[in-house]
Design goal:
Pseudouridine synthase; 3 domains; Structural Genomics Hypothetical 15.5 Kd Protein In mrcA-pckA Intergenic Region, Chain A; alpha+beta; five-stranded antiparallel beta sheet
């Protein structure tokens, strides 16, 4: 098969890869699982079979079995967890806030300030370092390699819920739901100002800024960036700031942070997107002192992954999880409420 017949598109934020493979005109009949294990790099036959069982593999748009015989010009699509890319992860005895666990997955409430996986500048103290200490043989890695159990991630300075897979099948099954955008993800964010509408939808392609690769920009041209949709609604207004609920239809890097800046309402204390400055209200006196103190209370942006819903890989039942806002986030809301009531 020529390389032109294989397309790979990797999601930056959901940690799985999409493949589209077109069988050659002269392709002989061969089992689907064997065919894919020969043509997809870093994917064992077991991982391929898990993908087929999780209905993450389709032939000509239809779910099929591992025994299906690939024919000439068949179009095969699949979504699989990314292969390991890091050589070693050192286990670290870091406490985890686990709010649910069973044989195939767990739900972790990540604190603000914790990086999800090791990368340049953050090789220790991450969620993955903790996971490889507390759990053995998580999928996509052995002996501390790869990104064990990781299906998705949230930013270092965003707190909240993450689902971690404990088996290869669970990882593939969950990854498919992220790929299909059927995972329910609800965030709470404190933003500067008041949106004109109490609820709405933000649509705008997201991609890395040409000026600063650490920042995501919104592109009006559909040929740039990746399609991104965020739904929001007001929970409570404090006039100068507003607590909103955000639901992700897609899951792009910095999606809520970039989208909120795009509509003129950066997230409170978001240093990357300009929310760490006074954007509403007076910029001096007691108000300035209050806002500065609130910035100091919060180590990162006021954004929390509050709820998470998905179909369980084993029971096939819908599961929904929710967590309270971090204590410092709640304190900031209380301070804003007191200020608003005294005006």
């Amino acid at each position: 098969m020529s390389e032109d017949n294989i397309e790979i598109a990797s999601e930056e934020d959901d940690l799985f890869e999409h493949y589209r493979i077109v069988a050659d005109k002269g392709q002989g009949l061969i089992r689907l699982d064997k065919y894919l294990s020969l043509h997809v790099a870093n994917a064992s036959r077991t991982k391929i079979q898990n993908g087929i069982d999780a209905e993450a593999v389709k032939v000509n748009g239809h779910v099929t079995k591992a025994s299906y015989k690939v024919k000439p010009l068949d179009v095969i699509t699949l979504s699989l967890p990314e292969p390991p890319r890091d050589t070693e992860i050192i286990p670290e005895n870091i406490a985890l806030d686990i709010i649910y666990e069973d044989e195939v997955l767990l739900i972790v409430n990540k604190p603000t300030g914790m990086v999800v996986h090791p990368a340049f500048g953050n090789w220790s103290g991450t969620l993955i370092n903790a996971l490889v200490y507390h759990f053995q043989q998580l999928p996509t890695g052995r002996n501390g390699e790869g990104r064990p159990g990781l299906v998705h991630r949230i930013d270092k300075d965003t707190s909240g819920l993450l689902v971690i897979a404990k088996t290869e099948f669970a990882m593939t099954f969950l990854a498919k739901q992220f790929s299909d955008h059927t995972i329910e993800r609800t965030y709470n964010a404190l933003i500067w100002g008041e949106p004109k509408e109490e609820s709405g939808t933000i649509t705008g392609n997201i991609g890395r800024s040409a000026r600063d690769r650490r920042v995501m920009d919104i592109f009006p041209d559909a040929s740039q960036g990746k399609h991104a949709v965020t739904h929001y609604k007001t929970i409570k207004s404090f006039r100068n700031v507003t607590l909103v609920q955000c639901n992700l239809e897609t899951g792009r890097t910095h999606q809520i942070r970039a989208h909120m800046k795009h509509i003129g309402h950066p997230i409170f204390n978001d240093t990357t997107y300009g929310g760490d400055k006074i954007l509403r209200g007076p910029s001096n006196g007691s108000y300035k002192a209050m806002v500065t103190n609130l910035f100091d209370l919060l180590p990162g942006q006021a954004l929390h992954a509050k709820s998470l819903g998905f179909v369980h890989p084993a029971t096939r039942q819908w599961m929904q999880f929710d967590t309270e806002l971090p204590e410092n986030f709640q304190t900031i809301l209380e301070k804003w409420e007191i200020y608003t009531n005294n005006q």
